[in-house]
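Format notes (please read before filing issues)

Several people have asked whether sequences and structure tokens are stored in separate files. They are not. Every record keeps both together, in the order shown below: the sequence lines, then the token lines. Line labels are part of the format and must not be stripped during preprocessing.
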Amino acid sequence: MRRNRIPASILLRRKRKSCPFKEAGITRIDYKDVELLKPYVTEGGKIVPSRISGVSTSYQRKLQLAIKRARNLALLSYTAGYVPQFESTRVQRFNPAHREAR
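Then the structure lines:
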């Protein structure tokens, strides 16, 4: 008699990660939500692949587009994870409230 053995390759496969966006019920990924995008960008500025992050392919495309839009508008940095928001001195010079304070 022959035993039906399960191949080792099937036994050693890891369980696929579930998509965090599907679990949270998020349907739209907004490029202005930098806190949502930051975990999916490495310190070097690269977009984390879906096999590591566990994001499904449809959400990975949406995430990629949102990250690229945020980079284009300088909400996210191309090299670091995010751009810190600060008020420049030039903005302060043209701010009417700043003039009244003098």
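For reference, the curators noted about this record: The CA atoms of residues 6 and 12 lie 11 Å apart. The radius of gyration is 22 Å.
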